[in-house]
Amino acid sequence: MKKLAFALVLAFVTFPCLAQEKTAKKEIPDGEIFSSTQSVTINGKTISLATETGTVQLRDENDKPIALFGFTHYRKTNATNRPIVFAFNGGPLSASFWLHFGVLGPKRIEINDPAYTKPAPYKVVNNQYSILDKADLVMIDPVGVGFSKPIGDAKWEDFWGVDQDIRSIGLFIEQFIIKTGKMNAPKYLLGESYGTFRNAGLVKHLQDKGIAMNGVIMVSAVFDLQHLLFGPGDDTAYLIHFPTYAATAWYHNKVKNKGESLKAFLADVRKFTENEYAPALLKGDQLSHTERASIAQKLADYSGLSQDFYMKADLRVTNGEYFQELLKDKGLTVGRLDSRFTGVNEDLLAQSSLTDPQSDAISPPYISAFKDYLYNDLKVRKDLTYTTTASTRKGFKWDWKHNGNIAWNMQVAVTTLPDMTSAMKRNPDLKILILNGYYDLATVFYGVEHSINHMGLDANLKKNIIMKYYEAGHMMYTHIPSMQKFKKDVDEFIDQTSN
């Protein structure tokens, strides 16, 4: 009887625990995939695409579920071992709909570049400039945007940071190529903006795991974030922004001598920046008044601002101040993402601009048209919320620490450039294609040139970095001639590196 009683007590204790354990396991959701067939016509040929969008269960290194990871996969039907491109936007943290619906996917939104696009109905067209004739495509939405979110014991902060982000996307890519049989196919990373900063770290991370990329495509790149910060006592950001100030003034006819072309004009600006502007800033308050006035006049001549403005600014003008000042006399401000765009200057007394005209002009059409495509063409359940940016999530905060950027227990840099340098030195066949917009004041082209010139690569290895330039901005594909060039440049890169 005592044994029977003990058994009954044990059962009452154990069975609820087992039931709770099974319930807990059931509470970890599986991913949900929505399938459809899409098509795209490129160069007169129609390509049929097996399409999946939704989420898969992402596992950690011990196969423990940690996230529902969102993506859209376009695969050419009846084709094997085609190259595959993993693409994402930046932010941090933005969903991938910009690249998806701007230049890479089978459909694209038409906008009124470089002006404002009228409200709906928007025009969505076949994307003849898509890369889908060259490769299969996976558009990635990192955890925090799209449909991606943590599950199980994982938390948002496990994914929100430089290294956390690289790790989770690396896990997704590895698990995806295993699942889809793409381990032996040519593989590419394509990122825009912060996505290029991510790429520089991710390519080494994957290579260290035995997954070498054929190529990495950087759209509007930044590898050293201090280049963008205008930090106290650091003159680098002022120097590397100046050529883009000059390009912007050239576009808006605010320079006296435009020269033969934008390219020739900027060659002169680079020489001035390196040989006169940089030494002047290096002198600090040891620069004489006469020298200061001379440099201020040359800055004014190239940038479209006044000598007096540069004198008051101690020769140092931030990008926000430049946006605000260049066309203030016309009551306008210029765009950060694309300085060809202009908008109403909301406060003529403000020192810095209050808004970005390019973002104001294109965000509504991109977001609205893409969500219409997502829920109707791609057949996603309409009760699922697609988050376009993580900044709308409560408590969003990015951890900027990165392995290799810490010294004396302090953050001494915010850069993934050493990662990319190491990856290239350890894989001399790795090619990097960098696409730069001359009118991009978010991630400036001269900053990319500065980074590349400080990688310490020998001449042969440096040839593996291919630089292309566009007379447009951060999202150069909003400009039709630049979109055509984008297609040509990326096609050639994939052709050259996939065989």
UniProtKB/TrEMBL annotation:
This is Carboxypeptidase C (Cathepsin A). Keywords: Carboxypeptidase, Hydrolase, Protease, Signal. SUPFAM superfamilies: alpha/beta-Hydrolases. Residues 1-19 form the signal peptide. GO terms for molecular function: serine-type carboxypeptidase activity. It comes from the Bacteria. It holds the Pfam family Peptidase_S10. It comes from Flagellimonas pacifica. GO terms for biological process: proteolysis.
